[in-house]
Amino acid sequence: MLALRQNFAKKKTSKLGRVLDLKLDDSYQSKEFEKDQTRTDKDMVVRREQSVLPEPPPESAPVGAVREVLLSGLSEVRVRTFESEIDPFEISLLDSGHFVLFRKVWRDGQRYIQGALIEAQPFLDGMIEAAFRETLLSRTSDLIAAYHGDIIAAYGGVDADAYLSSTSGLTGTLLYQRRLSAPLGELELIFSVRQLPVAPGGRLITWIGLVLVVVLCGGFYLVYRVGLRQIALVEQQQDFVSAVSHELKTPLTSIRMYAEMLREGWAPEDKKATYYGFIHDESDRLSRLISNILQIARMTRNDVKPDLKRLTVSELMDGMRPKIASQVERAGFTLNLTCEEAVEATVLAVDADFFAQIMINLVDNATKFARKADIKTIDIACRQHSDGAVVVTVRDYGPGIPKDQMKKIFMLFYRAGTELTRETVGTGIGLALVRQLAAAMNAEVDAVNKDPGAAFSLRMLPARKA
After folding, report:
1. What distance lies between CA 104 and its chain's CA centroid?
2. Is the peptide bond prior to 399 cis by the omega test (within 30 degrees of 0)?
3. Residue 217's pLDDT is what?
4. Of 193, 216, 238, at which residue does a domain stop?
5. How far apart are CA 410 and CA 436, in angstroms?
6. CATH number, position 413
7. What mean pLDDT comes out for the span 65-70?
8. If you average pLDDT over residues 307-336, what whole number do you get?
9. Are 175 and 31 found together in one domain?
10. Which of 124, 127, 132, 174 is nearest to 157 (CA)?
11. Distance from C-alpha of 83 to C-alpha of 427, rounded to nearest angstrom
12. pLDDT digit string (tens) for 413-440?
């Protein structure tokens, strides 16, 4: 018995090394395992049992007599009651690499040993590895099986090798360490984590984070763009104030000078008509400027609604011709007005005042930007589009419109260049007013470059024959 117990006590040294040699970070290990390690033999509770067995007949009794006694009734059978002590099962590892599961039984003062011999590898694979592979832990961690501090088996996670052959691969953070319950209390399981994979919800969180980052960056970009627009608007408003001040001050100064010369009698008789004409032209220029400013203010507040009337194209052109002709002549240009005969009888629902103001502003813009052109002619033409709309075009022969400014010229207060570099006068509200007046009449205004010059077209709908 002593030799068998000593054989049970011998353990096989694992080729994988010892648990103490592992380089696992145990910063997060709880104290439950430390309490579990302090278990002693006092925790091994001895169980007592009482057994009742029939007393065997004497060895000298014939077999037939024994049968008759058993068949005659239980009252004639003697029974024996005895008490036995049974120790809990224990497990040990032999030098051969086999597990032995055994227990000691005491009966009538004699000790008996009951047990079974178990092959280690099939036992560990079937009981530990199979259960480990079925859990989610196999996707995130490695499993180590140890006996009395010796590593007897190691199983890698899904992304690692299934079986580890050395302790060099057993690195990472100690996740959980626990002994098995009796009778396998000598075995302990150690779970270690090398790298946590992305959970199914991790991708969703990643995408949500990316969306939030994009939204945040987009918000910052929009705020940045709005800030730039506000700064540009403030600068344009300051330029507008400066331009209006210049546009008002210059003609007023000229009007006052010529008026004083005429009042004091300093002007010769042959120059008086010229001075009177200059005063008239500058007064008309001031009237247009003030009218534009007041009109754009009312349009911005939506205080003005168009008074749409049914007028033919010829009536519109006849009412607009005197105002445009004098304006073009005073600027030193020649007016070339043409209209298709098929269009003259077309009836439009328009506001005559809005239409006249649009044409005056377009002509004023053309004369300002083409004043240095070789061909000082303003062409105004009206034609009918294939869809029945009437298109009125105002063309000059100046330098045209830069491509980078084509979409900005109809913006309120926009003027190319700066107050120090631009060569043309103006306030930056003329074309913006043209667009708003056209939109109020359900019309559209557009600009294209010609060779040479630029052409502004006013497209009016609906259009019907009289």
Report:
1. 70
2. no
3. 93
4. 193
5. 9
6. 3.30.565.10
7. 54
8. 84
9. yes
10. 132
11. 119
12. 666 654 444 455 556 677 888 888 888 8
C-alpha 396: how far from chain center: 49
Task: Give yes or no for residue 190 having a pLDDT over 90.
Answer: no
**What is the maximum alpha-carbon separation in the chain?**
177
Q: How far apart are CA 151 and CA 132, in angstroms?
A: 17
Q: Within a domain: residue 220? A: no
Question: Residue 71 falls within a domain, yes or no?
Answer: no
Residue 38 lies in a domain: yes
- Report DSSP letters for 245-288, one per residue: HHHHHHHHHHHHHHHHHHHHT-S-HHHHHHHHHHHHHHHHHHHH
pTM flag (> 0.85) = no
- My answer on whether 182 and 307 are in the same domain is no
Our measurement of the distance from residue 294's CA atom to the centroid of its chain's CA atoms, rounded to an integer in Å, reads 45
User: Same domain, yes or no, for 312 and 187?
Assistant: no
Q: For the chain, what is the domain count? A: 2
| Other CB atoms within 10 A of residue 428 CB | 19
Highest mean pLDDT (candidates 37-41, 64-68, 305-309)? 305-309
Residue 72 has pLDDT above 60, yes or no: no
Same-domain status, 179 and 313? no
Q: Is residue 62 very low, low, confident or very high in pLDDT (cuts 50, 70, 90)?
A: low
Taking the C-alpha atoms of residue 135 and residue 14, their distance in angstroms, rounded to an integer, is 26
186, 310: one domain: no
**Does 58 or 341 have the greater pLDDT score?**
341
Question: Residue 100: which H helix or E strand, with range?
Answer: strand 98-107
- The last residue of one of the domains, among 193, 212, 236, is 193
Q: What is the mean pLDDT of the chain?
A: 76
- Look-up: residue for tokens 């930007």? 369
- In the chain, the amino acid numbered 262 is L
Q: Domain of 138?
A: 9-42+115-193
Question: Is 162 found in the same domain as 30?
Answer: yes
Q: Is residue 283 part of a domain?
A: no
